[in-house]
Amino acid sequence: MDTVTAPGGGTTLPERLRAQEELQRELAARRARDRAGVRVPAVERVDRGELVEANDPLRVARRVDRVSRFRTGADPDSVPVDAPAPALVADAAERLDLPGAPQVLLEKVINQPDFLEARYLEGGFVAQRTVGRVVIRGADGRTAGFGTGFLVSAHLLLTNHHVLPAPDVAAGSVLQLDFQRGLDGDPLPVVEVGLDPDAFFVADPELDFALVAVAGAPASTAPFGWCRLTDAQGTVVVGESVTIVQHPAARRKEVALRENRLVDIPEQVLHYVTDTEPGSSGSPVFNDQWEVVALHHASVPDPAPGATGSLNEGIRISRILHHLAGLPLDPGRRALVDALDDPPTPHGGHETAAALSPA
Predict the structure, then answer these.
(1) Of 12, 27, 38, 339, which residue is 20 to 30 A from 72 by alpha carbon distance?
(2) In which band, very low, low, confident or very high, does the pLDDT at 352 lie, cut at 50, 70 and 90?
């Protein structure tokens, strides 16, 4: 998130936002320190090409099964949740006509550019359309900061709690879609939509997420589609690349594409090494199938001995969905949450990228 200093200190909202962001950074730094003993050996295994050894065997089996279903057009969610690892590996091997060794399967379907089909580009076009810049405004109408958010249904926007910490902040804020350049290099016309926390607003500081209704939805969101959220297993493994679509430092939309290695999967978060800047808070973290695997929220110095770079952290989407499932919501709001797992296409949004192209 990128905050704005108010003239004359006339509002405390920027300071409030900075305090929230700093708290999340401190929590992320603590988790990074606590997980160094797990993360560093896993990274060393990945560097040696030992992807299977760097991961839990069941996680590997679920991942190769899920990717094999994506690649062959099968339903990625059709596998029983209690299926044993050997059965998943055998099914994936048969589906892909490959040897049934987990190492071979994982090497063939993960992080191999040769296996990124052309539909990867189409899926990315659809996914990036859902991402916009959040302009945070106080009750006085002044801009207090910027973040990133993305549409997760025809009605709802997902971002960080430290971006939209309360309904009153959301009520004055807006989402700017198409804040980016077109193929000719010229800025696209920006579509600005308001937020409607009276219709729906749920936020949690521990998981650092805010889910809020978009004003005028579904008509206002129809041209952009949305990203489906799933708590399915098998969406990512240690050593895999992830992609982040973001508005870093409040700039026009940018993409950190694939050269972003996942290095650890703690209980609540994902840790990955990628290029993100302030203003990227609230960005979606995608796998190669353009499934959202995490909500980006913090970047901290890597505390591992000898490390010189940064470690980024995103809240696992499955944990956000589990939290939402346990909330006491009225039927109308429960229906809005249930729709997070019910998109019209596997990637969310419209049927094809062509449907989103300007006439």
Answers:
(1) 339
(2) very low
**Pair 249, 318 in one domain:** yes
Domain that holds residue 24: 1-51+116-352
Is residue 30 domain-shared with residue 87, that is, in the same domain?
no
DSSP state of 182: -
Give the chain's length.
359
Task: Please check whether residues 128 and 205 belong to one and the same domain.
Answer: yes
Tokens of 318: 């499955």
173 and 284 assigned to the same domain? yes
Gap between the Cα atoms of 229 and 331, Å rounded: 20
Q: Indicate whether 68 and 180 sit together in one domain.
A: no
Helix, strand, coil percent values for the chain (each to nearest 5): 35, 20, 45
Answer for the pair 314, 285: CB distance below 8 angstroms, yes or no: yes
Residue 303 has pLDDT above 80, yes or no: yes
Most confidently predicted of 81-95, 103-117, 165-179: 165-179
Residues 20 and 153 both lie in one domain? yes
Block residue for tokens 């219709």:
199
- Domain boundary residue among 61, 84, 109? 109
* Residue (of 138, 146, 303, 129) closest to 227 by Cα position: 129
| Core vs surface per residue 148-181: b (16+ CB within 10 A) or e | bbbbbbbbbbbbbbbbbbebebbbbbbbbbbbbe
Please state, in angstroms and rounded to a whole number, the distance separating the CA atoms of residues 334 and 337. 5
Residue 101 lies in a domain: yes
pLDDT over 80 at 351, yes or no:
no
Do 212 and 188 lie in one domain? The reply is yes
Whole-model pTM: value is 0.91
153 contacts: CB under 8 Å, gap ≥ 6: 226, 336, 339, 340, 343
Are 289 and 348 spatial neighbours (Cβ–Cβ below 8 Å)? Answer: no
